[in-house]
Amino acid sequence: MDDCHVVCGWQDLAMRFLSTAVVLSLMHAGILLAAPVIPGLNGNHPLDEAKTGHLLIEELRCAACHEVPVATTMKLAPDLSEAGSRLDLDYLKRYLEDPHKVHPGTTMPDVLGGLPDAEKAKVSESISHYLMSLTSEEVQVKAMTGDAKLGHEIFHEIGCISCHVPQRKNSKRGKSLGHIGGKYQQGALARFLLDPLKVRPSGRMPNMNLSSSEASALEAFLGGKAGKPAKPDAKLVALGKANFEKYDCVACHTMGNAEAAKGPKLQNFDLKRGCFTSKGANYQLSDDQAKAIALALEKPVFFSDEARIEMKLTQLNCIACHTRDDFGGVAEEIDEFFHTTEEALGDAARIPPPLTKIGGKLKPEWLNKVLYDGLSVRPYMKTRMPQFGRTALEGLPEVLAKIDKLPQVDLPPPNRQEQPMVRNGGHLLLGTDGLNCISCHNYNGKESPGMKGYDLILTYQRLQPGWFYEFMKNPAKHRPGIIMPNYWPDGKAVQTEIMGGDTHEQLRSLWHQFSLGRSARDPKGLQSKPNKLEVNDKVRIYRGRSRVAGFRGLAVGFPGGLNYAFNLENGALSAIWKGEYLTANWRSQGAGDFNPSERPIQLAQDVAFLRPKDSGLKWPLKPVMTKENPVNPDPLYPKNLGYAFRGYALGKNGNPTLRYLCGEIAIEDRFEVKSEKILKRSFDFDAKKSGVLHFRALTGQIISESGGVFKTADLRLTLGSEVETVLRSIGVDGEQELLMKIPLGPEKNTYSIDYEILR
After folding, report:
1. Closest C-alpha among 146, 126, 322 to residue 220
2. 266: phi then psi, degrees, rounded to nearest 5
3. Tens digits of residue pLDDT in 430-476
4. Distance CA 376, CA 368 (A)
5. What number of helices (H) and strands (E) belong to the chain?
6. What's the Cα-to-Cα distance from 271 to each of 18, 389, 403, 413, 624, rounded to whole Å?
7. Per-residue pLDDT tens for 477-491?
8. CB count, 10 Å around CB of 14?
9. DSSP secondary-structure letter at 164?
10. Which of 148, 279, 476, 719 could make a disulfide contact with 220, Cβ separation 3.0–4.6 Å?
């Protein structure tokens, strides 16, 4: 029932009312407990008094009960369809009985305010039982153990303090969370924090992209209730449902086919009763709020496109973290909570960037990714970009692009004759022989040898050329306090030896360099430090070149430390190892090279399955290339032997099932962890008709231990089915190969092998 909001649409809401003096005289007939808190109005917002009143009219959902002269797009109030699966019965009763006392600053009116105390208690109890009856079988209530200390850290670092009162501060600027402790059932607060837009589609509580452990930690810090849901009384449920409709809760909260009772038109509203008094359903408005609303009601309020932007940024409280023109910005009292992992980069690394001309700065597709998908290019900044949802943001990217237009700058790609010079110029400028940009910026997925600033290779994808051009000529003008030097003061290049010292050509060459994306060469001085990849609680896969898996390698890591690599080009299990997963380098296009982090057990990378006619007396080996002979002598090697890769499907926990062909035989190949050192490999064969398939299971110095068990010094194979095996010599030093002759019928056939690491 908390935070009832009217939708902030982009339509104009023009309203005329009685005089301000009349409204104010009626406002103070009673005692105000706590005025509604709209966080954006407590900061450095750009709205005048009339526009502030208009925002309050929308945020307090006046149009939910009253007809307005101009159509307005209404946002949804909190969804109560599963209220019984998350809220506490006692809390609901207390809150409905006196919302402003239980949750000071709430934007929900005291809808039962005009009732005698005894009747109010009965009505609130019945409605609370009705709401507790609204549950979902899909919601699984589990006790969640969170780290309160971690929750404290998260709350004060990711941006919660932008809208809520910091727990270490006395402040009137944000929404209080003192009521949270008794509000939710066990685990329900954490579930809400993981997907708040499901319950509150208005977006005033955004999705902060929390992990399950972070949500659980916040619940522990905020005092989430560790109790079980109370069983509602059937008689009270029926009465509560009737009261829910009677007292017009359905005006804000959709519930079945119930229709809201509409109040009088705003033009004819009697200000001697109702929401403007303390005797009826009231909001406990402050003097300033009452005055602003009265002013908005007194005369029409029309909005320009720029005013619409200002309204939206205030409603969503974007201005708590961002500036735009001369409004917004981090308040002094919460500045200490904005942190970064790169302190040397200054405030630009810890304070979110300005929104001035943001529609002219970011390309439309990138702006959408930021607003709708929460995309971030500043991993060093601990404050997170909230996701408000499409309902809250609808129309904002378009109006920003319309208003924030910048002068066009022509940075055309070089023609064939210019290309070597332009490409070389950008490459030189970025490196240590030029402007040394890589001393402070990551580049192309590789870390800077110094400070780890924003990855420059994303510049072309993100920025519009006009903004890039003007920013580079004077960074401090666009980002006051930035530590980035001005390499083109007054439009003149500091570096005069590259591109003839021509400012325009230097900036053009940089723009072209960024346009190359992942194919761009590394600038001089950039460290090519491998990225260490780890496996957490899900199976992790990575594709790229590898010395252990060939040109088209796939690495799969399981939680617990077992890993394997597969050569997708030839269809062979090529390496197994235990321990840490792998390191990866970005090179050219694609994911990049990878190598196991531990010493792997190397297996053959030749085609693994053959039809009998192809296996012969000697297994056909993959072509070998050397520096002297770098050209593949047999590029159709796997294809000519019947192999064709058909992709893979991800199953439980992200585990891939590999799919490939050997002639007309379709094979599905998957691995599972059987024990600490054993991987179980299972094959499904779809042969359509009976036949035999030859599988080269192992090479090296092989010992046959017993029926179906073979080993080398590092690896033991246990065959899961009785099949004919052949152990034959393949060279000097006792090298052998183990072949399996797998009989296949017309139905699907399944075989398995266990791979046990012996070291």
Report:
1. 146
2. -65, -30
3. 998 999 999 889 999 888 888 889 999 999 999 999 999 999 999 98
4. 12
5. 23, 22
6. 8, 36, 39, 66, 90
7. 998 888 888 899 999
8. 15
9. B
10. 148
Distance, CA of 7 to CA of 15 (rounded, Å): 17
* Closest-CA residue to 287 (of 59, 42, 27): 27
The length of the chain is: 759
CB 409 within 8 A of CB 466: yes
Is a pLDDT exceeding 70 seen at residue 428?
yes
CA 179 – CA 189 distance, rounded (Å)? 12
Distance (Å, whole) CA 35 – CA 106: 8
Q: For residues 57 and 300, is the Cβ–Cβ distance under 8 A?
A: no
Largest CA distance in the chain: 105
Give backbone dihedrals phi and psi of 577, rounded to 5 degrees, phi first. -155, 160
Compute φ and ψ for 23, nearest 5 degrees.
-60, -50
Alpha-carbon distance 671 to 659, whole Å? Answer: 12
Q: Is the pLDDT of residue 16 over 60?
A: no
Parallel, antiparallel, or unpaired: how do β-strands 582-585 and 572-578 relate?
A: unpaired
Query: For residue range 389-412, what is the model confidence (pLDDT) as tens digits?
Result: 999 998 999 999 999 999 999 999
- CA torsion sign for 716, 722, 723, 725 is positive
User: Which residues, 6 or more positions from 573, have their beta carbon under 8 angstroms from its beta carbon?
Assistant: 564, 565, 566, 567, 603, 608, 681
* Beta carbons within 10 angstroms of residue 477's beta carbon: 11
- Specify the pLDDT at position 562: 98
| pLDDT bucket at 655, cuts 50 / 70 / 90 | very high
Instruction: Measure the CA–CA gap between 485 and 657, rounded to whole angstroms.
Output: 51
Q: In percent, how much of the chain has pLDDT > 70?
A: 87
Quick one: CA dihedral 105, 109, 111, 117, positive or negative? positive
Contact (CB, 8 A) for 445 and 527: no
- Write out pLDDT tens, residues 702-729: 999 988 999 999 999 999 878 899 999 9
Backbone angles phi, psi at 615, to 5 degrees: -75, -40
Q: What residues contact 264, with CB distance under 8 A and at least 6 apart?
A: 66, 270
Residue 255 has pLDDT above 60, yes or no: yes
What's the pLDDT at 15? 29
Contact by Cβ (8 Å): 637, 607: yes
CA 273 remoteness from chain centre: 47
> Measuring CA to CA, how many Å separate 399 from each of 312, 364, 405?
11, 11, 10
